[in-house]
Amino acid sequence: MPTLATKFIPIRSAFETTLASGFKAAEFWLDSAVLAQADEISQVAREYPFRYALHFPNSGPLSDETLNATVNLYQRLNATAIIIHQPMFDRYAKALLDLSPDLDLAIENHVLDLNQFDQWAERSPGLTLDVEHLWKFTLHDAPFSTLLEHVDRFLNRFAGKLQHVHMPGYTPGQDEHQPIHFNEELAFEVISRLNAHGFSKLVVSELASEFQTLEYLQRDVQMFDRWAAKAKIPTQAT
Questions:
Q1: Whether pTM exceeds 0.90
Q2: Residue in 135, 140, 134, 126 with CA at minimum distance from that of residue 109
């Protein structure tokens, strides 16, 4: 079964809010300055009963110390994946894999047309599927049924390479990075498909900062529990 996760900069208050909300997993937003505190982050993170994924810095240049800190944090936390943008993968993947060949590097889809989307999925060693990016940028806010057809097509071909999922509560024409419960139909349909394909890593409600409050996080968890009840799966709280 997938695990619902939130995403935050790894500071103590964010861990506490996530714990209080009922989430069981988190994706860390990282940059060089944050990774300079990797030892402290690791110590704090291990105080909490969460699964973790790491979002590699979005821009460089990055020092050898930053790359080492990323790998060490991944290993200490037994992270499920390192989410990485294509330009950063092209620049730093070799160096990261030289440090640890068993890293799960999961390249995220961004502004791609349909041919480019297929090429991304085919050539990448590991994948982060951003459902919002697929709907908004690749399918240009196509009907919901069209989105689901493409999710089915993607999973039928590439589920074995899928390491991570971003799924805010997107609705065509609305802002990006809204809580996953803002579009419960989208969440139920996609999570059910992931579950049917045996996906057991993290599905992330990737929130803008204004939504990273206890109230919104709790509503996300409640939505996931409704999905689990409908699917006759024990909730995250059990």
A1: yes
A2: 134
